[in-house]
Amino acid sequence: MESVSTYRIEEILNPPLIGDLRNYPLPFVLGRVGREQQDGFLRLKRGDMKKEIVFKGGTTLEIRSNIVNECLGRFLQRTGKISDSVYEESLRIMSAEGKKQGEVLMAMGAISSHELPELLKKQARERFLDLFSWPEGAYRFFPSADIKEPEVSSGLELAAIIYEGVSTRFPKERIQVFLESHRDQPLARSDRQALAFDENRLKLSDRRILKAINGKSRVGDLLDRFGSEAQVLFYTLIVTGVLIPIAAPGTGAEIPRPPAGKKADPAPPPLSAPPSVPPAAPAATASGGREEDAEDKSSSSSKEEILEDLQSTYEKLRDLDSFGILGLKQDADLARIKQSYFRLARTYHPDRFSVFGNEEMKKLSNAVFALVSQAFATIGNEEGRKKYLDSIRTADKQAELEKGAEKLVNAELQYQKGEMLLKQKEYDQALEALDWAVKLNAEEPEYRMTLGWAIYKKYSTPPIDENKIKEAARLIKQATERNPRLDKGFYYLGTISKLSGNEDEARQYFTRALEINPKSLEAQRELRVFEMRKQKTEEKKSTFSRLFKR
How many CB atoms are closer than 10 A to CB 227? Predict the structure, then answer.
């Protein structure tokens, strides 16, 4: 197969390392980290769910999760490896002895030391695959040179897990939209760095499809030839960098704007259509010589107007939903959708602008045509149209969702900054960052809880500010009401109650924290202190009682 290296594909293969999965699909994010052989942590957050993938040299070492149903005991219980009673007993022992669940289960004889590494790998695989089903979620990659090998590596080959995740969990609609937007582009081998992808592991049918890719067949032709079964294969191989759509729309750097004040290159004679209507390609003239100066000047002016019109069209379309891009209302039926698409596809097809020989015009026409093609791929069939209407409802809601995604990412950044500053006891800066996190995402209980704890830490040292302590308790209570599973929130409330001298209330909060998280060492420690005090009090009462009887 031919190799290609002359086309820039940064926008396809290099999503930013911070963003939202709605805008930047997980497979492409993983593909970039793997191809660049990065060291660090990819953190993902969706509501209260958090996961972290540890990479070293682009290889996945482990994946961590705060989802209760993904802990080892739950995984073994769900897969039938241990019974419900064994699971409950392991939790009791973990709470009492402070050991890891794997150690406890081995000590109980529920699993053997030889089984544990393989079971942990299976658990990691399930955690990883679940991420491909996330429709949204903030993500950020944190580079780090200090990555330590875990006791048991996940053993997951990144290219293989991407292929499995795309095949089994990733929305097929997103795959279809991406491929349809590159339908007119040939596929070829890339000579850039790609993830190690063992083609021998592919099904025989997939290997046959792969052999048909020669750099000349277009994506659309290949899809028509091999059917829907080829979509996952093409998508995965593009994600991993093995294949590349040649000169794909939008793969260059930023869409260029016509340079102000720059004289355009000589162009063909002016078009009869006004610049507000994208032109059809002019017929070639018999004469190859230059036109007169007046005509040349007029041609240059028309080309600049066409560039401005394309730029204006692109900027208008990119902010619209799929119906708006096709110039339709959301009640448009399939016949009108197809009619509008074919009209716009003829008008903005890049071939109509190729005669100008202008690189900026080529990129702009490619970009406009890609938006039109992607819009049709999204709503061009009844099932897709219904799903799209269900997801956006109105254009205003779609705009709000996009704005909300950006706010969620910024909120998470402020929260992480605040957490770090709080650990460093930089309370003023921590309060500022956490306050911003709550303002940007007031629905996240953990942000509110941590802000309350930061207020408590700053104002609980003499001179104690009682009003601030009350404010801290109020924020943390609000967080636990929104998410009753926040064990840290109940621990914090217990600490505040203890400071206020309300030991009964404090004991209740610490007990609740331990019920939620049996591994909470802080809550265990506080309850042990209460228990020791209780025993000493009872011993004193017993001593006084014996003395009194004498």
Answer: 10
pLDDT in tens, 156-169: 888 889 999 999 99
Strongest mean pLDDT among 49-53, 143-147, 211-215, 236-240: 49-53
State the pairing for strand pair 3-4/187-190.
parallel
Which residues have C-beta within 8 Å of that of residue 75, sequence separation ≥ 6?
119, 122, 123, 126
pLDDT of 368 over the 90 cut: no
357: left (phi over 0), alpha (psi -120 to 50) or beta: left
pLDDT at 199: 67
Which candidate, 249, 218, 219, 217, places its Cα nearest to that of 233?
Answer: 219
3-class secondary-structure state, position 100? coil
Q: What is the token pair recorded at 12?
A: 């396809």
Please state, in angstroms and rounded to a whole number, the distance separating the CA atoms of residues 452 and 470: 9
Distances (CA, A) of 416 to 18, 45, 427, 447, 493: 13, 12, 14, 10, 22
In the chain, the largest separation of any two C-alpha atoms, in whole Å, equals: 130
Tokens 């066409």 locate to 306
In three-state secondary structure terms, 51 is: strand
